[in-house]
Amino acid sequence: MNRLGIIGFGQMGSALGRGVHAQHPERPWGAFDKLQDNVSAVESLNGQRFSRLEELCEWAQILVLAVKPQDMAEVVQYLKPFAQNRLVISVAAGISLNRLKSWLGSNRVARWMPNLAASIGECLVGVAHPPELNAHDSEESLNLARTLGGALLVPEKLMSAVTGVSGSGLAFVLSFLNGMALGGVQQGMPYQQALALAMQTCIGAAKLIQTNKKHPEEMIAQVCSPAGTTIEGIRYLKNAGFEGTVMEAVIQASERASEFES
After folding, report:
1. Residues 175-185: tens digit of each pLDDT
2. pTM
3. Domain coordinates of the chain in residue numbers?
4. Which of 32, 118, 129, 206 is deepest in the core (most CB within 10 A)?
């Protein structure tokens, strides 16, 4: 299997390292981070720790750029001499495929948009490829993204929408969970008990849709009894503009992501 090099071993870089270790233990991989303390766990995951970025670039056949967007321009200067013979994958928000190709002088690039749930292998990663990317590189990119939970191939123009629904959306769901738990507290429950109920309710709701392959509205109808408790709560949410507010949060996050595109 192609040797994988991870540049930057923060949340996303380390999530990928753990995913590769768990799902593809036979794949050789290594990592570099300018903060050497960040890569202290690499060897415990059967990875190779590199102290110099140039050495990692020479060794690896696939490179994942898991660095902050503001550090990208500097890092790619080290990659450019190797880019023609490497697939380079970026997880940096706002860095377009065209900019990556321009910086690297290569068309062998890909973009990912994961979220924090990648750290536990529960992220559906948004993936964008340039039209000219060869089939082998495309499959390599998708297979690696799947180590974080799953891969969703989308046109690059939809990457800002992926950010709104998934990248930022994770925080929206966490906010909803907190609100559910606080509602339980107001009704007399300890917070941790209410949070446990809210979390399992969200997990159960998602799995119901995955299992039954039904539209959420169909599942809502099954839960709502005539003149019952649930329809009363749904009525309140509808009157408060709940769905419209959530839609607007996704739109605002997506549009903000579009502003960063370059």
Report:
1. 999 999 999 99
2. 0.90
3. 4-158, 167-260
4. 32
